[in-house]
Amino acid sequence: MKRSADVVVIGAGITGAATGYYLAKSGLKVLVVERGFPCAGSTGRCIGGIRAQFTHDLTIRVMIESVRMFQGLSEELGEDVEWFAGGYLFLAFDETRKQAFFDAIAIQKTYGLDVRFVPPDECVKIAPGLDPVGLLGGAYCPTDGQANPFKVTYGYLEGIKRLGGALVMDCDIKQVNKVGDKVVSVTDAKGDVYACNMLLNAAGCWADEVGTMAGVRVPVTADRHESLVTEAVERVFNPMLVDYRPDGCYFVQHSGTGHFIGCYTPVPLVPGHNYDATDEFITEMPRRMVRLVPRLAGVKVLRQWAGSYEMSPDGNPICGGTSLRGFYVSSGMSGHGFMFGPALGKLMAEQMVKGSASIPLDEFFLSRSFGKAEAMK
Amino acid sequence: MKSKVRRPKARARNRQSSIVNRQSSVVVCRCEEVTEAEVRRAIRMGYHSLEAVKRYLRTGMGHCQGRGCLRLIARLIQEETGIPASEQQQPRPRPPLKPLPLGLLGSFVSAESDTPDRTDKEGAVP
User: Chain B residue with minimal CA distance to A153?
Assistant: First the structure.
């Protein structure tokens, strides 16, 4: 079987869905091909946080735009994506971290972000039930928030279909076909061929595998993270709490349903794909959550799972064109793919259609030198 | 994709069961309050696997973790697509198999756990 489109997008996670949607909106015929089903990779395993509190200039600018887009996304997609501006509260328990917050806030404020350092007593007001023992304060941005990754991704995919595009599931791309220095089509495991003018590699953690098929290496590696979700309870607090201690954690109460959902970054990091659940996480994560908010002790855990962050060498996305004409990449989101989704999708679509984006993405290009790391990873 | 061969069999079984009938507002997933009609609609939209339906409608993500609904949804997928329930990929069971309080789970590790200090490169937070 042979199908053709203006753009073939590999991967039906948030990146492929959002970029595909804005490409379709610009009038192109978009075909999203997905090895499994939508949200089968990292998007469906993320906890749904959205923030503009970063330190890299371009990241802050893109995220401010993404927050703005999330605010109107339910209307855009005709689907309640459960956007909720509950804020993000980063917590400092040592002077070094506190100073890092001051430094970050100074950068963020230059972009007009509504962010401030809050003393411990105000942290407790923002997050009632928070145990302030040892707390030196927090970095708080009330316009940060959360949304439902499934609703957003499926919403974008349905939008692509409405705009004349299509989603093909169970489509495992095995080959990228070129003529000269230009991409012309892809072939899947069943031998089906999808012809295209442009090809977008939105394969997340598998972006290097897809890139290699085209002769374009993408420096993205998988880091394993685990998460859990609790039963739904009445509203306790609004913000995502980020406890930056070495044995810290981060969690948020889902705005619509009342579930708490959270995870922590393992020390040391666990490279590679591994979706197994561990005993260590299902005991250690609850300990950390209850230490931070003791009144959650009686809330029951429903489920734990694992997923992968698609890490780039500097923790920033890898977006833009490549050495192969017509072949684009958008990956390396380093744990922030969902929150980047709307803005980076729109900007990447501009990049692909017009050759430049309204917020220039040069610092995210694959051709950059991967030097300075994001301080608020 | 619809198999005309399998559908009569599925219909025959439905006649014996009052749970599944067409255009039904019967709640299939009680934890997340998802109806049969919603599940059928999702399947017809192309989300014709237990995993895809789960992510689209949250079926099986509530208190019972799919014990109540997965078999019913597998049957609906079979009816709509002809893919036998026995051949459908099941979502992976996840601990704890019954809901347990955070306080209890957290008590299995001591506060003075030997979590090593962070010495390598820092990972990312969401």
Answer: B56
